[in-house]
Amino acid sequence: MYKRKIEQILLDWKNSSERKPLVIKGCRQCGKTSSVLAFAKKNYAHVIYLNFHEHREYKTFFSGALDIETITLNISVGIKEAKFIPNKTCIVFDEIQDCPNARASLKFFKLDGRFDVLCTGSLLGVNGYKTKEEQEEEENASIPVGYEKVITMYPMDFEEWLWANGIEQQHIEYLRQCLIDETQVNEAVHQRMRQLLLRYVVVGGMPEAVSTFFNTNNMNEVYEVQQNIIEAYKADMLKYALQADKSRIRECFDSIPAQLAKENKKFQYSVIQKNARARDYQGCLQWIEDAGIINRCYNTTITELPLSGNIIPDTFKVYMADIGLLVSMLEQGTVASIMQGNMYTYRGAIFENLMADILTKMGRKLYYFQKSSGLEIDFLIRYNGECVPLECKARTGNAKSMKTILAHPEKYHIEHALKVGDYNVGREGALLTLPFYMSFLLTSL
Hints:
Distance between the termini: 31 Å
Number of helices: 20
Number of strands: 14
Shape: globular
Oligomer: single chain
Strand order of the largest sheet: 2-3-4-1-5
Largest sheet: 5 strands, parallel
């Protein structure tokens, strides 16, 4: 087990006197179950684990009355080792989307208050195929609005990757101070961080891929793990999607590398299939996004806050939620090029997806700015109370669009800008340049 930020979130939840049953959603294989079980076993005398995906029979525990006495009786009959001790038992509902009545029961667990409940869900809210019985169950079950807390968990982020590589907090604080003071990073530290960034690009944050990398130091084996995850996602698309959407969801997913290869990275349905129409594929793309596999980055009408209020709903880019999975979808030679420091491979696509990975995993929504005149900014973020353009460059670049925007504050209302790439800290007027590995420190809102 590697250190994950979810551990502190779970501890804060347990220490809250007003805690509600906690539902952790996120893409498959991002570490939800292992993190929850490790926390529960460490902090509770008794843990009762119900995986509704692997054990469909567990759904019968919730087929009748949902009062806590009935539920605990049903579970104790079905699972002999289950022990319900008030304030000492934690119940874990894994893949709770497969048992709507279990989720409905969270209201009663909250009202009862004797047992803590942790839940995980990989496909919560995904519109998919259901049997007639499952449809009836879902229609009759109610989501316990107000009686549960829902949070999203992501694959390991870059800071967690640094922890796994032995980078201590004092080193991260040193980088943070360099950012604050706008001073260059020590050359030895700079080179080490550059190396770790390149490795993160090809390994990504899926826990199994990370473990395989550290255990084998063999990128071929990491690639095999990543491919297995991709195939598992595709299997979910075939198993859980509506029959009419199955092939279209796969087509949307398979088009992502080609979408990012374009000079204009706006998502275009015609790339999926010639003459493809948005109305035929919108729901399919939404399915992939709801499954936590991709992130959407919206174009904005203006470079002003609030960014969410200025989006153009039908103009967006799509990035893989994990950078390592994107790289694994490309030819294997890409990995070798990246590890050798040749970040020109696939040009801006990898760098942009890496930034999307870092921003999303710190909880940020994604926005960009593009005009028909050719003016384009890779990302817009809220930073230190301002709308700040953020440009990603593979190595160097004059950031022409950025300079245009900074030259006209009366039109774009931009006072400061950021450019990240393969260089050290520097400033030129209103433009602050940063090494890419510092991106995870841009947390100030």
